[in-house]
Amino acid sequence: MDEKRVIKKLVTVMQGANLKKAQELFKREGKRLYELNHPQIPKLYAYFEDNNDFYLVQEFIEGDTLFDEVWQKGRFSEGKIKLFLRELLPVLDYLHKQKILHRDIKPENIMRRVSTNNYESGKTAELILIDFGASKQEVPP
User: Fold this and answer.
1) What's residue 114's pLDDT?
2) What pLDDT is recorded for position 1?
3) Residue 28 and residue 18: Cα distance in Å, rounded?
4) With a cut of 50, which residues of the chain have pLDDT below it?
5) Count of CB atoms situated within 10 Å of the CB of 7
6) Cα–Cα dist 96/46, whole Å
7) What does pTM read for this prediction?
8) Could you tell me if 103 and 29 are in contact, meaning their C-beta atoms sit under 8 angstroms apart?
9) Which of 12, 15, 43, 54 has the fewest C-beta atoms under 10 angstroms from its C-beta?
10) Start-end of H helices in 1-141
11) How many CB atoms are located within 10 Å of the residue 129 CB?
12) CATH homologous superfamily of 5-137
């Protein structure tokens, strides 16, 4: 197992009917994420519940969010923003075809994955869409 993984703990303070609803939503989200297969979405390896806390075991993405980049480098040019949008289109198209609405696309939920696949600089970057907590499966009318 060479791939780095991360465990995200989602702590709940709910009880009774609210906890039951949270469990249902978590299981539905976990199943949905587990079935997604796109290079711009972190792979979900497992999801489970323990002692009313929920856990996601996901692929670790090395890099910064676009929010971090803006904070460090300042505003981006219109051309750079257009490039970001073009880079995001494949994952948005994939989600659209899967009938999934992310519902929380913002700089904090877009990461630039750094990898060593570029022969010239030794590094490449790919935009990754993260945090599907607010996502929803479109239901037919």
Assistant:
1) 83
2) 55
3) 15
4) 118-123
5) 12
6) 24
7) 0.81
8) no
9) 15
10) 16-35, 66-73, 78-97
11) 21
12) Transferase(Phosphotransferase) domain 1 (1.10.510.10)
Distance CA 16, CA 101 (A): 28
Residue of 100, 97, 102, 10 lying closest to 56 (CA atoms): 10
Specify whether the CB–CB gap between 95 and 102 falls below 8 A.
Answer: yes
pLDDT of res. 49: 86
Q: Where are the domains of the chain?
A: 5-137
The answer to whether residues 40 and 127 touch, using CB atoms and an 8 Å cutoff, is yes
- The tokens describing 96, both together, are 């659209």
Contact between 81 and 36 under an 8 Å Cβ cutoff? The reply is no
Helix, strand, coil shares, percent, the chain, to 5 = 35, 30, 35
Q: Which two tokens stand for residue 83?
A: 């490039």
Span between the terminal Cα atoms of the chain, in Å = 43
Query: Which residues are annotated as catalytic?
Result: 104
Q: Quick: pLDDT tens for 82-105.
A: 999 999 999 999 999 999 999 999
**pLDDT the model gives residue 125:** 65
Token pair belonging to 84: 């970001």
Angle at 39 between CA 54 and CA 60, to 5 degrees: 45
Strand, coil or helix: 136 = strand
